[in-house]
Amino acid sequence: MEDDTLSLVLFSGTDDKLGAAAILATGAAAMGRRVNLFLQYWALDAFRADRIRKDHGVSPEAGVEGQEAMRRLAERDGAQHWSDILWQAKDIGEVDIQACALSLELFEITKDDLDPLVDGVQGVAAFMAAATGPVVFI
Amino acid sequence: MAVVHVDRTIDARGMACPGPLMTLIGAIREGAVGEVIEVLSSDEGSRTDIPAWVAKAGHEMVEVVEEDGFARFVVGKAR
Fold it and tell me: Which structural domains are found in chain B, ordered by start?
């Protein structure tokens, strides 16, 4: 059978990109695809337990207009934080979230400093071994 | 036109993508086989996502009705 596992490398730590990644992960999980998320650099920083729900800003390309649009979206009734979308993705499907070991070292933190959404710590080779389908970098 | 019997209606209007689909998945999971669930959604993504999920998950897409500013998705839990 064709392997339709979806693997996302989350690098960016801004709310727009984390939101986009959460929606992609959820869509894939809903359609029965296995999903691996690998958290590197600024994305890993955003998954720290003490700051996951804080304002992480938006990417520079959003500009003033994009920032305003994101703010309006977040204030809409029924708007969900990307971390809640990821919990839903885990609830409906097989979604594994791993922290990049090197990025943990970069911030001098351990898995205990991360939100419970994160399932474990991996090196890049272990992630690539699990990433048998397409790999998307966000 | 025959009126479709609906057991449960979920109003997901105003929810952003993928909220309405997630709500439907939850309701289908809780429901009994044979139950008919209706979701109201104003999210444009639902028009493609809900039928795609229903087909993949093996349920029945009873009908999609366009209303003013939203659509009604009527789904039968088949398994």
Answer: 8-76 (3.30.110.40)
Q: Which residues of B touch A88 (CB under 8 A)?
A: 22
CA torsion sign, A88 to A129 to A114 to A112? positive
- 3-class secondary structure per residue, B24-39: HHHHHHHCCCCCEEEE
Predicted confidence (pLDDT) per residue in B36-60, tens digit = 999 999 999 999 999 999 999 999 9
Placement of tokens 């105003």 in the chain = B14
Q: What is the pLDDT of residues B7-26, one digit of tens each?
A: 999 999 999 888 999 999 99
Determine whether the interchain pair A30/B53 forms a contact, defined as Cβ–Cβ distance below 8 Å: yes
- Residue A19 near residue A74 (C-beta atoms within 8 A): no
Query: What is the ipTM score, two decimals?
Result: 0.82
Q: Which residue of A has its CA nearest to B51?
A: A31
Residue A1 lies in a domain: no
Q: Helix, strand or coil for residue A41?
A: helix
Vertex A13: Cα angle to A106 and A59 (nearest 5): 135
List residues of B with catalytic annotation: 17
- Check which CATH number belongs to the domain holding A89 and give it: 3.40.1260.10
A104 occurs within a structural domain:
yes
Is A77 part of the contact surface with chain B (CB cutoff 8 Å)? yes
Q: Fill in the DSSP letter of residue B65.
A: E
Within-domain flag for A111: yes
Tokens representing A15 are 């709310």
